[in-house]
Amino acid sequence: DIFLSAIDAPTGSVLWTTRVGSAADEVVSSMTISETGILAIAGSTTGTLGQNSSAGGRDGFVIAYQLPSAG
Fold it and tell me: How many CB atoms lie within 10 A of CB 15?
């Protein structure tokens, strides 16, 4: 599974956490953040993520999140 968390730097408090995963294995191979605050994660899975079906074996994925802006 893949876990994403936002941490408040001054206090170390967890602001939010989200999880993406299946009953099988997920591997993240790269991540990047755009200038507009979009986090893109690329990797592979041997399971089924969300509403997507598995093609069998190991399948690739790309997930994008719009990160909240710092106030």
Answer: 10
What's the CA gap between 57 and 69, in Å, rounded?
A: 38
Separation in Å, CA 28 to CA 5, 11, 42, 56: 15, 28, 6, 18
CB 4 within 8 A of CB 21: no
Question: pLDDT of 22-70, one tens digit each?
Answer: 888 899 999 999 999 899 999 999 888 888 878 888 999 999 988 876 5
Yes or no: say if 60 and 44 are a contact pair by the CB < 8 Å rule: yes
Secondary structure class of 11 (helix, strand, coil): coil
Record the tokens describing residue 16, joined without a space: 């939010």
